[in-house]
Amino acid sequence: MAHSVKRYHGLMDWLTTVDHKKIGILYLLAGGLFFLIGGIEAILIRIQLMQPKLDFVSAETFNELITMHGTTMIFLAVMPIIFALMNAIIPLQIGARDVAFPFLNALGFWTFFFGGVLLNLSWVIGGAPDAGWTSYMPLASNTYSNTHGVDFYSIGLQIAGIGTLLGGINFLVTIINMRAPGMSFMRMPMFTWAVFITSALILFAFPAITVGLVLLTFDRLFGANFFEVANGGNAVLWEHIFWIFGHPEVYILIVPAFGIISEVISTFSRKRLFGYSSMVFATILIGFLGFMVWAHHMFTAGLGPVANALFSIATMLIAVPTGIKIFNWLFTLWGGQLTFNTSSLFAIGFIPTFVMGGVTGVMLASAPADFQYHDSYFVVAHFHYVIVGGLVLGLFSGLHYWWPKMFGRLLNETLGRLTFWTFFIGFHLTFFVQHFLGLMGMPRRVFTYLPNQGFDTLNLISSIGAFLMGVGTIIFLLNITITARKPKDAANDPWGDGRTLEWTIPSPAPEHNFTQIPLVRGLDAYWKEKVAGNKEMPASEPIGPIHMPSASIIPFLMSVGLFIAGFGFMFAKDEFASSFVGMLFNNYIVAIIGLLITFGGMFCRSVFDDHGWHIEPEDLEDKGVKA
Amino acid sequence: MSGHAHLDNKLPHQPELATLEGRNKVLGFWLFLGGESVLFGTLFATFLALRDQIADGKPGTELFQLSTVALATFLLLTSSLTSVFATQALHRHNVKSMVNWLIVTVVLGLGFLGLEIYEFFEYVHEGHKFSTSAFSSSFYTLVGFHGAHVAFGVVWITILIAQIFKKGLTVVTAPKIYVAGIYWHFIDVVWVFIFTVVYLMGKVG
Amino acid sequence: MVSEHSASDQSAKHRHRQEGPGKHIVAFIFSIVLTLIAFAAVMSSEVNKTFTYIILIVMAVLQVIIQLAYWMHMKDRGHLMPIIFLFGGALIAFTCIVMALYWVWW
């Protein structure tokens, strides 16, 4: 039975895999690739701004660079890397053999990937989007943005967004339905809680941007009038829809970082997390309030004093649960037996950095003051402090922490510390001075500035910092390359102080994760057993055959279908040199072929049952010996 | 998971919840509907913001034919009732009755779609085109999104009926039927808001 | 979690056994009546505009509650998560509508 199933090897294995651990690695690879692309765009921006009146890139290219930097980093780099850690760790942390929907998990990855590829192909076909990552109307309308750039934005993000939404639903169901026996909600590790809240935010925020992007696409491709003022449309409507999604999106990014930091700090302080239940409560509250504050991005749009006051107060309220979290981390560190390594350095570096981002956030929340800060470099500094200083430091911390569980090898500690110090110092050099640039009046999204306005030195410092961050990233890549050549020798619990279930199984985790699903007897289940003097988790079931889902190429094909359909719709009204190609596009034949592939994939998935296959107990023992 | 066809007479009362896969599917679908609520909420918001922006086109007070809408509403409400009968038959393991009620549901859904297409043709004929005004764009997008959901449901339930003939009622097929049932009710609930907000309030002006 | 589930399965089994089409037909009749009231309020020219709006909204909300409770089984046990997430979605949808009504035009 176990060997009768068709198993793929090499490239086909990666294209067809439904294993959450492999999908996690795919997310990491693809997200890492887009992170590098976004990083290069950032470096190019900083080179252009290094000195006044440079024309290293043209104004048009600069607009494309800032748009693609923001869009790529948020949707295609950091979110997928969050998904990489979610995939790699969540089923292990809750004692499950896989996610709830392995097939959808693969589909989610491939739609994200092809959406991202489509968006980035804009650099070589027809010009990249240039209306800013917020794509405000009427700047993004056909009148003012007449290349296909914004179409790449709307259709690429639409396809990638499908993947994110599927991922969100998948992790919600996984966490609700598949926790190991004994793991009540209030015994879930903090990272699992964070992912639970993040997934709920994804579920409620992404449909809004789906609609927003549909409206934008209809306006640009099919002559609709949602934002077309001449026919009764309203440009502010786009701002609202974008930020009703956009603000929760910020919390979708930062909440997982909160989870990672909680795990890392508690592990390397050898203490249970201070104020666990208040942490849970604070995370839920942040998630809820995240939906009620979107208009603070629009203070200067003219909503009036009542709306501005309302959103101002709601925004400042978020400082309360966030403050609870900061103090809980500090109290966890207080009196703990601290271990300083790369992972904990990133986590400890996160705390003051994120507090700075939070404080400027409260400053911006004050509507009258915001009229001064709005669209200046102060805002740029603020959101880079929360996203890079918060999320990216958190991701680095999490990657160093869970690397052995994902790949079976510990990253090099010396190179790791070098990564931390170059990246951390580079980050503060880049963005700390930008607060002052903003306060001195430098507007964001300008491609150059005049000399002798007091901007020159600070911009130079900022650019040097950006190079240093680049060096930090290169050292990290070097570390990965060197580590990949070492043998897979990481222990089950390489840090020695693991508290949660993922550290009870081999590194990397075997295909079926747990030979026997463990029985959870408290918060920090593994630590509890360690304290009681047990070497292993108690099992909640006898050893038996384990049912596994079959690999499938359908998710890949369905995503290819969407990719083709995206191009089909985008170029439906263009003129082509070849009349045959023109006929295919202009009659929507390409779009229809693409959609047929996707719906055909859905049809096959519905009609042909996946019986899966079993790992028999005797095979389990073989694997046990090898591990 | 597989090969349970011969155990038909031993199916549990709620076969859709008999396996972990089934429970995951049902819960996952509920969550998806939570997301769909936001999707339609945003579409309703767009419509409400733009419904008075008729530019050179006709307003809803002149346009809407309440008799067509009333008939469409009746068809969809009835189809929701027949789909709940199908779910009850599923719980009684009465495959024949279940399939019959599903077929009735599909037929009523097709009737609804026919009426909607007829209605759209009429409006376009009267000069209420997709690109006429912000009102017309948001009208066709909101009602069209709902119509697309109905069309998807009709195709989906048809495929499920074929699967029942082929595979019978098992712990694998039962969750699919159950989930299609909640999907159909959800579409009906959305329609309640559409006929209220778009047509009736549009007629009031 | 696991034991909870089987317990609720048991009790649900008990209730569903006696469940006939009766209450669903009653829910259907309610839906039809509420719909008719809404249509009638619009068609009669007697009622003023604001009052018509209120009638329409009340009828729609009542009908949706009835359909969610009976046809979508949300009154049955084991539906805590569906309720949380559907109402979460409805809350965000409501927020969007408030946005559209108050903060788009001024």
Automatic annotation (TrEMBL), chain B:
The keyword Nucleotide-binding does not apply. It is found in: Cell membrane. GO terms for molecular function: cytochrome-c oxidase activity. The chain crosses the membrane at residues 27-51, 63-86, 98-118, 139-165, 177-201. Keywords: Cell membrane, Membrane, Transmembrane, Transmembrane helix. Its main location: membrane. PROSITE patterns: COX3. Gene3D superfamilies: Cytochrome c oxidase, subunit III, four-helix bundle. Pfam families: COX3 (PF00510). SUPFAM superfamilies: Cytochrome c oxidase subunit III-like (SSF81452). Residues 27-203 form the Heme-copper oxidase subunit III family profile domain. One of its GO terms (biological process) is aerobic electron transport chain. It is a multi-pass membrane protein. InterPro entries: Cyt_c/ubiquinol_Oxase_su3, Cyt_c_oxidase-like_su3, Cyt_c_oxidase_su3-like_sf, Cyt_c_oxidase_su3_a-hlx, Ubiquinol_oxase_su3_dom. GO terms for cellular component: plasma membrane. Belongs to the cytochrome c oxidase subunit 3 family. This is Cytochrome (Ubi)quinol oxidase subunit III. It comes from Paenibacillus selenitireducens.
UniProtKB/TrEMBL annotation, chain C:
This is Cytochrome C oxidase subunit IV. It comes from the Bacteria. Its main location: membrane. The chain crosses the membrane at residues 25-44, 50-71, 83-105. PANTHER family: CYTOCHROME BO(3) UBIQUINOL OXIDASE SUBUNIT 4. It is a multi-pass membrane protein. Pfam families: COX4_pro. The keyword Membrane applies. GO terms for cellular component: cytochrome o ubiquinol oxidase complex; plasma membrane. One of its GO terms (molecular function) is proton transmembrane transporter activity. Belongs to the cytochrome c oxidase bacterial subunit 4 family. Keywords: Cell membrane, Membrane, Transmembrane, Transmembrane helix. The keyword DNA repair does not apply. Coiled coil: none annotated. One of its GO terms (biological process) is electron transport coupled proton transport. It is found in: Cell membrane.
